[in-house]
Amino acid sequence: MLDLILKNGRIVDGTGNPWFAGDVAIQGQTIVAVGQIHEEAAQVIDVQHQVIAPGFIDGHCHSDLMIFDYPHSEIKMRQGVTTEVVGNCGLAPAPFVPAQAELLQSYIQPVIGQTKWAWPWETVGQYMDAVADSRPSEHMATYVAHGALRIAVMGFANRPATTLEVAQMKQILEEGLKAGAIGLSIGLLYAPGSYTSKEEIAELCSVLPAYNGLFSTHIRGEGNNLLPSVQEVIWIAEKAGVSLHISHLKAAGKRNWGQIVDALELIEDARARGMDVTCDVYPYNAGSTSLTTILPPWVLEGGIEKVLDLLRSPKIRSVIREELSHEQVTWDNLICSTGWQSVFLSAMHTEKNRHLEGKHIAEISEMRGQHPADCMMDLLLEEEGRISIVYFHMSDDDVKQVVAYDKSLIASDSLTCDTGKPHPRLYGTFPRVFAKFVREHRVLTLEQAVRKVTSFPVQRFKLGKRGLIVPGYIADVTVFNPDTIQDHATFEEPRLYPDGIPHVVVNGKLTLSNGEHTHAREGIFIRAQHCCRH
């Protein structure tokens, strides 16, 4: 007898091909039959012509620590997500060395959050084991994160790595790849990634080809420096002979809107030369990050404690205020093109300032009778640098362009949920794609949208036999109603679950049933099966 049959569905199999009517049979962890199925099963669910699709893959998020506190992953499960890819933007809780643990923790905290217990790992492989031991409801996969790598070897030093330090980083990177990491991620906007030359990155990337590893990057500038930043990472990938994935591609700042067309052309030109380049996008016109990213890059040298020391100096504050007042050549000053009214505080560290969550800097500075730059610096001091922001700096038309691009996949870029007002993408990304970009604006067909959240990310991140409704594949399955699927999370009320996703199957076990979590915890840590070419 079969374990589960999903009957009477519109099967959108993940290939991008048109949907077809049929049933899906599951035995153990595997899809065993697709079509008209007449056998008996322990459980039969009539999905009443709703879509049966592969489980959705969130190919770029920051749930690295959240998975331990919330192993049921209900926020993602209710969106149909069965797998998350972490370790993005160079930000991850591994690898680390005990001497630099506090530095790494303060570095990642505004994006990834914090744990209230000692980390039982140091290496990427040990982190993978710890996630697997927590028995999550969803699958996880990870990169080796460059920020963690560089901090482990040389802290926050703003200088080129020595030959010995590069060798040490390459060794730790190789250990992570052998353990099953899918590649190397870097955040060129964030210190210490921003301190790293393209030549140094290319040398690190030289480790990747032997493991068929992917180079994933938050580029150095997404505003005025968008195009040179895209050219830089293409140069690195070409030099090292690696596949390139550009994270959350966007044109930030009003004066740069429309340049996204030129950025996509750079990707197409690289592909025409035989390079393997792709990108991801989230379906919103606002991003989310740490407030410290607004500061000039030189201020961030040495880690958060040194940043706070600088912000206490009237002389340094005057320099920062002056630099933020006009465009910069070497870094993207988005305050210039976007304005303080576009910077909303989403998470404060202390109870004292909790009432400021959801307010923008321009509003708070007016309340306090301060220049916005001084207000921002005072807030960072009051909150020990631990402030998360939502940043409205993108054009809806640009977002549509990247969503429609056939080499882009959809990802949430969601941060920790332990914040006051998280970006609504944490709760709404995947339903929003189907509600807004398929049903409302018709930017994508149903089949194209499913491919962008299933087989494409599975292929890109080498996640094994997932992402297709095909016999012999792992039974990660999402059932949704294409007419009613809808996100409800907003910037004002971000903690609202979506509608229209009744059932989710993970590793063959019904994990969401009629919209309710069954408490099944069948997720695994997916370790890349690298075809090592040593």
Span of the ends, CA to CA: 45 Å
Number-wise, the strands total 21
State which percent range the strand residues make up.
15-25%
- Mean pLDDT across residues: 94
- The best one-word shape is globular
Give the C-alpha Rg. 23 Å
Multimeric organization: single chain
Provide a quick synopsis of the model:
This protein has 534 residues and is α/β, with parallel strands linked by helices.
Key features?
534 residues, Aminoacylase, six-stranded parallel β-sheet, Metallo-dep_Hydrolases_sf, single chain, nine-stranded mixed β-sheet, 19% strand, globular
Any overview of this molecule?
- The protein has 534 residues and is of the alpha/beta class.
- Helices cover 32% and strands 19% of the residues.
- The protein is built from 18 helices and 21 strands.
- The protein has helices at 66-69, 74-77, 101-112, 124-133, 146-154, 163-179, 198-205, 226-240, 260-272, 304-311, 314-323, 334-338, 361-368, 372-382, 396-404, 425-440, 446-452, 455-461, and strands at residues 2-11, 20-27, 30-35, 41-46, 51-54, 56-58, 81-86, 139-142, 144-145, 183-187, 214-218, 243-246, 277-281, 286-290, 343-347, 388-392, 408-410, 477-480, 503-506, 509-513, 516-517.
- Strands 1, 2, 3, 4, 5, 18, 19, 20 and 21 form a nine-stranded mixed beta sheet that branches. Strands 9-10-11-12-13-17 form a six-stranded parallel beta sheet, with helices on both faces. A three-stranded parallel beta sheet has the order 6-7-8, with helices on one face.
- Helix 7 links the parallel strand 10 (183-187) and strand 11.
- The longest helix has 17 residues, at 163-179.
- The mean pLDDT is 94.
- It comes from Paenibacillus marchantiophytorum.
